[in-house]
Automatic annotation (TrEMBL):
Similarity comment: Belongs to the FlgI family.
Signal peptide: 1-29
Gene: flgI
Protein name per Swiss-Prot or TrEMBL: Flagellar P-ring protein
Organism whose genome encodes this protein: Roseovarius bejariae
Subunit annotation: The basal body constitutes a major portion of the flagellar organelle and consists of four rings (L,P,S, and M) mounted on a central rod.
């Protein structure tokens, strides 16, 4: 009874969630700022990576026998500082080799600071309290664009005793806010561009056409041209703006109503179903039920009578039970029915969310669900 009550509560809550989502969706999508729909050509970040050394750990560093690259980088650093350790045997436990990653924002200038992420690559158990030694960060072209250094803020904790160990979070990874200083600027001159392209995050011909119309209406002349479903080209000279930056500052807050594809996304692990408002279903018949087979083994030990000859044997005893739970009967869905109406009908029949996912998958396989079906 408790399980049934919990199931009914889950179904009722899901039905309420679906109703709220559909009621708030309206019949049209809300207008969105242009900056939230497109990426501007050339205005992008760049990924950086480096290999460095963390020092000052409280005995939680790499075991140098298992991570020889840690000893190698430590030797190189000490020799650059004028300390000759050639041929010496040292086994410190407070150092760890790490990979340092960062994203260099667009138009970063020399001297500005960016955040970095530090992750252990050896067998270090924790980076808590460690300090990253000066580490150059390279881009894909092999050039050094930033240098990182600072105290690591790890996102976890670890403690251990003689017979137990407790780990919370991930202490082998951490961040250094403003931990890298930009030393080289990306060679990109926005002001020299004569044309500029807008790349849609969700390519769609209708949305691209609306963006073109909205920009041309804002300038009062034809300055934007849709090239394909994911690209709109702007003629900087025709806008009359003093620079491409001024032009982008003018158009990025233009409101555009995007057109979305009909899409259904389901998460089988949590039983979540998210759908768009344009999903439609053709005429289809649905029948659903659950078949449960239970097989239980209960072997019996049989022993001979006292003072009698014989051996103790195990006699198998098997109980098999086949039950078919009551499901929904054969139901027909009229053509042009929205998915929200189908979901409401299934909720009224008491179909659990996970069974509902199986029904939707079957409707899609039958070719009656007219939407992109994404299963996670």
């Amino acid at each position: 009874m408790t399980h049934l009550r919990r199931l009914l509560t889950t179904i009722a809550g899901f039905a309420t969630l679906v109703a709220v989502i559909l009621a708030s969706g309206g019949t049209h999508a809300a207008p969105i700022r242009l900056k939230d729909l497109v990426e501007f050509d050339g205005v992008r970040g760049n990924d950086l990576v480096g290999y460095g050394l963390v020092v000052g750990l409280n005995g939680t560093g790499d075991g140098l026998r298992n991570a020889p690259f840690t000893e190698e980088i430590m030797t190189n650093i000490l020799e650059r500082l004028g300390v000759n350790v050639t041929g010496e045997q040292f086994r410190p436990k407070n150092v760890a080799a790490v990979l340092v990653t960062a994203s260099m924002p667009s138009f970063s200038r020399a001297g500005s600071k960016i955040d970095v992420t530090v992750s252990a690559i050896g067998d270090s158990s924790s980076l808590l309290g460690g300090t990253l030694v000066m580490t150059p960060l390279n881009a894909a072209d092999g050039q050094i664009y930033a240098v990182a250094q600072g105290t690591i803020i790890a996102g976890g904790a670890a403690a251990e005793g003689a017979a137990a160990e407790v780990v919370q979070g991930v202490p082998t990874s951490g961040v250094i806010p403003s931990g890298a200083r930009v030393e080289r600027e990306i060679d990109f001159e926005l002001s020299s561009l004569e044309t500029l392209r807008l790349a849609l995050r969700e390519p769609d011909f209708t949305t691209a056409a609306r963006i073109e119309t909205a920009i041309n209406r804002s300038f009062g002349k034809h300055v934007a041209l849709m090239l394909d479903s994911g690209t709109v080209r702007l003629d900087v000279a025709s806008t009359g703006a003093r620079s491409p930056a001024h032009m982008l500052g003018r158009i990025e807050n233009i409101m555009v109503e995007p057109e979305r594809k009909a899409r259904v996304v389901v998460d089988q692990r949590s039983g979540t179903i998210v759908m768009g408002q344009d999903v439609r279903i053709s005429r289809v018949a649905v029948s659903q039920g659950n078949l449960t087979l239970r097989v239980q083994e209960a072997p019996v030990v049989v022993q001979p009578n006292p003072f009698a000859e014989g051996e103790t044997v195990v006699v198998p005893r098997t109980t098999a039970d086949l039950t078919e739970e009551e499901g929904i009967g054969l139901a027909e869905v009229a053509p042009g029915t929205s998915l929200s109406e189908v979901i409401a009908g299934l909720n009224a029949l008491g179909v659990a969310p996970r069974d509902m996912i199986d029904i939707l998958k079957s409707i899609k396989a039958a070719g009656a669900l007219h939407a992109e079906f994404v299963v996670r």
